[in-house]
Design brief:
By secondary structure, the protein is an alpha/beta fold. It has one domain: Isocitrate/Isopropylmalate dehydrogenase-like (Rossmann fold). Helix content is 43%, strand content 16%. The chain has a 6-stranded mixed β-sheet, with helices on both faces.
Length: 183
Amino acid sequence: AFFIMCTKTPEFGEDGTLIFADSGLNIDPTAEEMAEIAISSAASFKNLVGGEPRVAMLSYSTKGSAGGDSAAKSKQAAELAKQRDPEMAVDGELQLDAAIVPEVAASKAPGSDVAGKANILMFPDLAAGNIGYKLVQRFGGAEAYGPLLQGIAKPVNDLSRGCSADDIVGVVAITAAQCQIAE
């Protein structure tokens, strides 16, 4: 599951729009599952947002700056996604600032085709993803649409218990668009 995040910061993502995955379904995905979620999220990004997807596998570490199982999982997920879809722009492990801020990316991840310009943020687990989307929504004033489900035959989406009427209208519109794309 992912959220489409429409932020008030056009310098990030695709004119302020990003996908946050998985922020609504998989509690602790494996590296293999993260790779598949990234590939599905890239396709969803192309279909729903437009533009070229650039996936950052997020971590508390950038390019080996810290150790640990979670950082290793994000790095492995990026490698697996690249093997499965060599055309996809994916990199990791990346800290959030290295993923979206060009100046930080130049310092922490020089030469990356994703760092500093990611528009899909892949979180290492549901806790991080769910907390992340709610922080951006509540503190940053972003519009959050989802969770939008992927990998099933027909469009199926959900809503947070804290959603507004505008959120419902937005998710219904996205679901209708998904149905048209699927035809």
